[in-house]
Design goal:
about 0% strand; about 90 residues; extended
Length: about 90
């Protein structure tokens, strides 16, 4: 079993190491060339979004569990230090 990926940090893109079989990598490359050199990540983003949406739309119990798990993820944001003026304003 592989290690689990960390939850994404808001405002930052998440890099995921993905190894594709040769035939799928070739198809992705050709598909991107067909679309005027579209970036690979844009095509992968669209494909993953469509796959997840289709799977969850076809399986309401899975969608409910997905939403429950997603709502439990605690996203930590960096602490912002705000300097106050001497008069407290």
């Amino acid at each position: 079993m592989g290690r689990r990926a960390a939850a994404p940090v808001p405002g930052k893109r998440k890099s995921l190491p993905v190894k594709l079989p040769d035939d799928l990598a070739l198809d992705l490359w050709v598909f991107c060339e067909l679309h005027h050199g579209a970036p690979h990540n844009r095509i992968v983003e669209k494909a993953v979004r469509k796959f997840i949406d289709d799977e969850l739309n076809d399986n309401p119990p899975a969608r409910q569990r997905f939403e429950e798990l997603k709502s439990k993820i605690v996203v930590r944001t960096p602490l912002q230090i705000v300097r106050m003026s001497p008069d407290g304003i």
